[in-house]
Amino acid sequence: MVNGILIFDTMDVASVLADSCLFDWIGDGKNLVEKYAETHPFAPGTDEHFLLQAYCRAQYRLVLPQAIRPGAAVYCLDTLSNEYIVLVDIGLSQTIVRGMRGLFATRTVPLGGYWMTTGAPLPVGDKRTGETVIRKIERGNLLEDRTPAGAHKLATAVIRACLDCGAAEHIRYEGGDDEEEEEELDTVSPAPEMRSTRGVGRNEPCPCGSGKKYKRCCLRK
Hints:
Low-confidence stretches: 176-198
Strand order of the largest sheet: 1-2-3-5-4
Distance between the termini: 23 Å
Helix content: 25-40%
Number of domains: 2
């Protein structure tokens, strides 16, 4: 926390924690998504109504890829519920094709006959992360509590275990630019004072008014 602004090491950590805040921060028995659905009702039959209802039925999962359709989807086994699901995630399917296999922790929302992720999946494949996740689940008897509150406790425990073991270091935010340029920019460390005062995302318009993305402009300086 710097001058009232939260500073994250990477976009990936921000994505994971923002997702956790939206779904696992409970007040008066509801999370922020459920509260938003109550105060912002959309007409039944609209895309907005369909998506918001889907997000209200989100589930956090530990998924094991079984088959891949590159550039489209991953067929997975949810190891927590023993349910097989089709997970539509272009980035995840491409990552697995490149060789990143094993267990993933991610939140999913139902869209008809398939599911979609809500944030960056966290790899749980290495031994240290897997053992840490299992210990947290077993010590808290988190699989025994089938209530909504128990589901949120389980998700929070898995996320904390993954981040504590450095799982976010194995994921990378991509904004659609070519990989060579992304790798070049990843080596540039923004000055601490710029990060703490601006709080600007790499793909947001640069505050200097140039019209360029921040990463293509003042982030280089």
